[in-house]
Design a protein that fits this description.
single chain, mainly alpha, 0% strand
């Protein structure tokens, strides 16, 4: 039996995840000193996931382009 096209994972894990696993959440809590040894992971505090946004790179003008723009003005 084949898998329907809508159920196939195209991008895999390249997308940004908005939910962390327990181990990832525990590591972040330990890093922030919000979890102590012996505390239960059930009912543990929420951990904010940093959003990563791609910034556009500024186009660097070459000397020729800057001369051309000065001549046009």
């Amino acid at each position: 039996m084949t898998i329907d096209k809508s159920l196939k994972v195209k991008a895999g894990t390249s997308k940004v995840r908005n939910v962390w696993s327990r181990s990832e959440r525990l590591a972040k809590l330990i890093e922030e000193d919000r979890w102590k040894e012996g505390d239960s992971l059930l009912g543990s505090p929420k951990v904010r996931i940093p959003k990563i946004s791609m910034k556009k790179k500024k186009k660097v003008k070459t000397e020729e382009e800057s001369k051309d723009t000065k001549k046009k003005k």
